[in-house]
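Design request, tokens follow.
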């Protein structure tokens, strides 16, 4: 059976609905978090929901989830069309967009202005420098690397990466 929902419902914004993003959104909802999934490409969101539905169906079919579990996960997961709306009241923001330094820098500069001051900001980058991504931010210590492994719902491993601009309170 699935883990019990988190008693303190954490609000997670996942930016990017591709292979990694939809997987991260799925496991966050599975863990009991309220999840808002967004992507710059509107076409990606229905496809991501379809992929998550496949994960839910597979989980039910294999006996890992009940129908009730799957229904609860669906209620905790929503798609939203803008980054600002997704991060506005998030406790955790996880970025899973294209591996391009400039794109990630621009995104986190924007996210930093909109997300709550206490929100944890994380990039799922697997190849870029966390410090270089953070360099475009006013408060670079807010950013950590949170590298999930693919497929996210099977690989129960997350690498947390800090950088020279870290603040121990963030991690």
């Amino acid at each position: 059976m699935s883990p019990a929902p988190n008693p303190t419902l954490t609000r997670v914004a996942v930016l990017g609905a591709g292979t990694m993003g939809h997987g991260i959104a799925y496991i966050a909802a599975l863990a009991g978090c309220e999840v808002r999934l967004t992507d710059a490409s509107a076409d990606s969101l229905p496809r991501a929901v379809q992929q998550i539905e496949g994960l839910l169906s597979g989980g039910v079919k294999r006996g890992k989830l009940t129908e009730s579990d799957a229904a609860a996960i669906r209620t905790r997961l929503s798609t939203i069309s803008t980054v600002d709306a997704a991060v506005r009241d998030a406790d955790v923001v996880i970025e899973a967009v294209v591996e391009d330094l400039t794109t990630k820098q621009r995104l986190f500069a924007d996210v930093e202005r909109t997300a709550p001051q206490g929100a944890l900001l994380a990039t799922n980058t697997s190849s870029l420098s966390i410090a270089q991504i953070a360099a475009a931010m006013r408060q670079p210590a807010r950013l950590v690397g949170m590298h999930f492994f693919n497929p996210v719902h099977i690989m129960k491993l997350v690498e947390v990466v800090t950088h020279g601009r870290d603040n121990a309170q963030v991690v």
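Comment from the thread starter after seeing the answer: thanks! DSSP finds six helices and seven strands in the chain.
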